[in-house]
């Protein structure tokens, strides 16, 4: 049922944006919604295995999230997949641009996806962008 | 802890404590969901949360997906949300 679907486009390198995207993905996925996450632009590098890249705090809330015991956005995206069956795919354009292979990304992330496929999958459902 | 049948002394169900104190939304909910997958249908869980928003959200999630909310108590800034797995 396409109306049950949440598609989330994640582009930002800012913690507050990434956190909200991850919260919607994880809570949506465990609440019987079909969730698709599309990682592109500046967001993709945070999903490379063993990366030392850190998201910018963005604002005072982002800074507080770093200091307190807030679940990291990377963990929430993984839980969206593991606990709720969400699908997370990297943008094939960003993969090509950054010279990345799927094997270099976190293991819960699926195959690179192009926009034709993403638009097809997202059609008729909600689309959120961060 | 194991909940025993008062007349037969047999274990009716097991209540598992999920300690999510100190974590913020949606951490306690995610910890509960991970724990629910580990127990049998009919088993009870008690989730401890110091995050007030999570204490409110967990019963809403239970209602949405169809597990039983057995009640919530609050003591010294910690919410105890009691849950039974229904499916």
What is this structure's SSE topology?
The complex is a heterodimer of chains A (130) and B (87).
Chain A lengths: L4 E6 L4 H15 L4 E6 L20 H8 L5 H12 L2 E4 L1 H7 L16 H8 L3 E4 L1
Parallel strand pairs in A: 1-2, 1-4, 2-3
Chain B lengths: L1 E3 L6 E9 L7 H10 L7 E6 L2 H14 L2 E8 L2 E7 L3
Parallel strand pairs in B: 2-3
Antiparallel strand pairs in B: 1-2, 3-5, 4-5
Commentary on this structure:
The complex is a heterodimer of chains A (130) and B (87). Chain A contains five helices and four strands. With 130 residues, chain A is α/β, with parallel strands linked by helices. In chain A, strands 3-2-1-4 form a four-stranded parallel sheet, sandwiched between helices. In chain A, helix 1 links the parallel strand 1 and strand 2. Chain B has 87 residues and is α+β, with helices and mostly antiparallel strands. Chain B has one domain: 2-Layer Sandwich (Translation Initiation Factor IF3), CATH 3.30.110. Chain B contains two helices and five strands, in the order E-E-H-E-H-E-E. A five-stranded mixed sheet of chain B has the order 1-2-3-5-4. In chain B, strand 4 and strand 5 form a beta hairpin. The two termini of chain B are 21 Å apart. Classes of the chains: A alpha/beta (130), B alpha+beta (87).
How do the SSEs of chain B run, as a string of H and E?
A: EEHEHEE
Q: Oligomeric form of this entry?
A: heterodimer
How many individual β-strands of chain B?
5
Shape of chain B: globular
Give the averaged pLDDT of chain A, no decimals: 95
Strand order of the largest sheet of chain B: 1-2-3-5-4
* CATH A-level architecture of chain B: 2-Layer Sandwich
N- to C-terminal separation of chain B?
21 Å
Strand order of the largest sheet of chain A: 3-2-1-4
Biggest interface goes to: A-B, 15 and 14 residues
Q: Low-confidence parts of chain A lasting 5 or more residues at pLDDT below 50?
A: none
Number of E strands of chain A:
4
Portion of residues in beta strands of chain A equals: 15-25%
> What structural class do you assign from the helix and strand content of chain B?
alpha+beta
Distance between the termini of chain A: 24 Å
The biggest beta sheet of chain A, please? 4 strands, parallel
| Class by SSE composition of chain A | alpha/beta
What is the level 1 CATH name of chain B? Alpha Beta
Total helix count of chain B? 2
Strand content of chain B: 35-45%
């Amino acid at each position: 049922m396409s109306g049950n679907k949440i598609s989330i486009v994640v582009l930002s390198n800012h913690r507050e944006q990434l956190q909200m995207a991850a919260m919607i993905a994880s809570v949506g996925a465990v609440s019987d919604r079909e969730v698709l996450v599309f990682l592109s632009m500046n967001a993709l590098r945070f999903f490379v295995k063993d990366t030392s890249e850190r998201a910018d705090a963005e604002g005072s809330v982002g800074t507080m999230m770093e200091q307190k015991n807030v679940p990291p956005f990377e963990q929430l995206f993984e839980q969206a997949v593991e606990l709720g069956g969400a699908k997370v795919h990297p943008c094939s354009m960003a993969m090509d641009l950054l010279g990345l292979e799927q094997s270099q990304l976190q293991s819960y992330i699926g195959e690179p996806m192009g926009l034709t496929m993403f638009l097809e999958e997202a059609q008729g459902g909600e689309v959120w962008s961060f | 802890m194991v909940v025993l049948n008062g007349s037969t002394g047999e274990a009716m169900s097991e209540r598992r404590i999920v300690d999510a104190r100190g974590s913020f939304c949606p951490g306690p909910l995610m910890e509960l969901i991970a724990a629910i997958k580990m127990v049998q249908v009919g088993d009870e869980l008690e989730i401890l949360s110091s995050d007030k928003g999570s204490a409110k959200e967990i019963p809403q999630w239970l209602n949405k997906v169809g597990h039983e909310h057995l009640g919530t108590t609050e003591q010294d800034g910690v919410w105890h949300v009691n849950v039974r797995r229904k499916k």
